[in-house]
Amino acid sequence: MVQTRRQAREQESSPGTESTAPSEPQAGQWGRAWEVDWGAYLGVLALLISAPLMPFYCVLSCEKYDCALTGPVLDLYKSSSIYDLWLKIPSPTIQAWKVGLTWLCFQIFLNTLPDVLHYILPNYKGGKRLGAVTPAGNQLLYEINGLQAWVITHTLWFANAFYFKLFSPTIIFDNWGGLLWVANIVGVIVSVFVFVKAYLFPTCADDCKFSSNVFYDYMMGIEFNPRIGKWFDFKLFFNGRPGIVAWTLINLSFAWKQYELYGTVTNSMILVNVLHAFYVVDFFWNESWYLNTIDICHDHFGWMLGWGDCVFLPYMYTLQGYYLAYHPVHLSTVHCIVVLTLGLSGYYIFRAVNHQKDFFRSNNGNCVIWGKNAEYIQCSYTSSDGKQRQSKLLVSGWWGVARHMNYTGDLMGSLSYCLATGFGHILPYFYIIHMMILLIHRCIRDEHRCKCKYGKDWDRYTARVRYRLLPGLF
């Protein structure tokens, strides 16, 4: 049975399962806000201004100040003007435009191809898949072909690197500053387009949300699932392609540049490439599961996703490889083992926690977890139609250790990426800092929603499972 939006939103954060089918979703019940206060308005403006500056600052720090984040600030304080710093930022180039637009067009083309891998690979769930029910009751069909796009892209990349040699494998690194301009401009164009589209020709008008604040609507999005035609879904495409497909290619380009500059690829660079590739391949292998996560089932598509997936993801999530291209780090064998163990353990915990929840739900609580019958707290809530409904909150297995152990596993993996770069600079540790802020905020937000939904039953659950992320600490 296809999951409703409520179940989908709880897919990542709540241990519960409804014992009866929930009512049809009501418009406006979930998703972004209808009205915006002044605090949110100022926060939106701050993000719209500051977020685009962060990738430029990091690129400037590495290219001109040896990856020292304090470099531009100290330079400005001592002698330079803001205009002088601006002149040091890489400029857009014709070559960067050619590379960026070719990449985008190629990924759009791959997105149009029907998936064939699900006929070949056992247990891979690709091809046509139904998404979750939207707040207005719409249910869209998706073509899941991200893994296929990733395989084709990387096969062609390696074929070019070792046989055809039509372009240098370092082409991404060599045009990194210029590509940042291309990514920003494309991200803004996409964001403006879907913003205007929501007013003129929305895909599902009933799923649109308008507030009284144009900046908030632009940033958070108005349309829930903007599409062109039947199959080009903006949210699914930009969440998975081109940024995540590019992630591993970017790392390969960084590794090739390191070899070109220093005659070797360090074990730290190999570790970063392997751990990131593990994450990316897992993402595409589980792309159909992704249709029922918060990103697809909760977020509207606006600047936050459109620009973020074009710029923030490829530039800020790959800082470890970018740093190592400038600063080769040779790790000890023990350091490598610790980092690899941490990364793989985090992945195992993330997947195991989600598997236990899915297993518990699919059996309506009648299952065995860790060799014992699953324990749960029976609770009730009032649905949007005013009816009393029942739910079960799992307190066995990982869900009895902490309330968000899947996030804990995610943070372990994130930390491993950063530890692979050594301890020379803070710049490659941006990712773990970002993920900690993001997931702790999500913990608090999710638990507030669950408290509102379950009331005293949620208090019973938190009394039984005391910790959010780290048993004994938080």
How would you describe this structure to a colleague?
Helices cover 60% and strands 8% of the residues. It is mainly alpha-helical and 474 residues long. The strands form four sheets. It has a three-stranded antiparallel sheet. Strands 2-3 form a two-stranded antiparallel sheet. Strand 2 (127-133) and strand 3 form a beta hairpin. The chain is globular. It starts with a helix and ends in a 10-residue tail after the last helix. Mean pLDDT is 89; it is low at 1-12 and 19-30.
Helix percentage range? 55-70%
Structural class: mainly alpha
Distance from first to last alpha carbon:
36 Å
Please report the number of helical segments.
23
What's the rounded overall pLDDT mean?
Answer: 89
Q: What portion of residues belong to β-strands? A: 5-15%
Please tell me how large the radius of gyration is. Answer: 23 Å
Cross-sheet strand order for the largest sheet: 1-9-8
Low-pLDDT sequence parts: 1-12, 19-30
What can be said about the biggest beta sheet? Answer: 3 strands, antiparallel
For the secondary structure, the number of strands is 9
Using the alpha-carbon principal axes, give the shape. Answer: globular
Give the secondary structure arrangement, pairings included.
Layout (H helix, E strand, L loop, with lengths): L4 H9 L2 E3 L19 H13 L2 H13 L5 H8 L3 H7 L5 H18 L5 H4 L6 E7 L5 E6 L1 H19 L6 H4 L1 H25 L13 H7 L6 E2 L3 E2 H7 L2 H20 L4 H19 L1 H4 L3 H4 L5 H14 L2 H8 L6 H30 L5 E2 L2 E2 L2 E7 L5 E7 L3 H4 L3 H15 L10 H25 L1 H9 L10
Antiparallel strand pairs: 1-9, 2-3, 4-5, 6-7, 8-9
